[in-house]
Amino acid sequence: MGRTAPLMSTRVSSEINLTPMMDLTFILLITFIITFPMIEQGVPINLPQGSASPVSSDANRSVISLDGAGNLYFNDRATSFDGLLEQITQLAQVDLTTTVYVRADKDVRYGEVVRVMRALHDQKLTRISLVTKGD
């Protein structure tokens, strides 16, 4: 009884085993499914009060104020939002390095402040400071 050696193939297999890659894909998918609702929900936090530094008295500045009643002021003069847009456009044509201070009453809706800041940004006025009450 003679033993014969099994025939071994000398061909190299060019197939890629996809099982580990599929396992990793499913693990990542499950991880995202579990963590995504946590990201959307967020954590309720109580924001700290900030300290305010004194406002410089340079001549190259403008002040936009929003009071609790919804009135809008540009350099202490009452104006409408359309009037503010015109004044911002004129300001941008004169000097883009002007610092614009935005003062808003704590009862003003956040969206109104963002609307003013968006108008400033659209005119390329990027030196914007939010004025807050000190400690």
Q: How would you describe this protein?
A:
- The protein is of the alpha/beta class.
- The chain has helices spanning 19-41, 81-94, 110-122, and strands at residues 61-66, 72-74, 77-79, 99-104, 128-131.
- It has a domain at 61-131: Nucleotidyltransferase, domain 5.
- Helix content is 37%, strand content 16%.
- A hairpin with a 2-residue loop joins strand 2 and strand 3.
- The model has no long low-confidence stretch (mean pLDDT 78).
In short:
It is built from 3 helices and 5 strands. By secondary structure, the protein is of the alpha/beta class.
Question: Helical proportion?
Answer: 25-40%
CATH class of the domain at 61-131: Alpha Beta
Query: Main beta sheet: strand number and arrangement?
Result: 5 strands, mixed
Tally of DSSP β-strands: 5
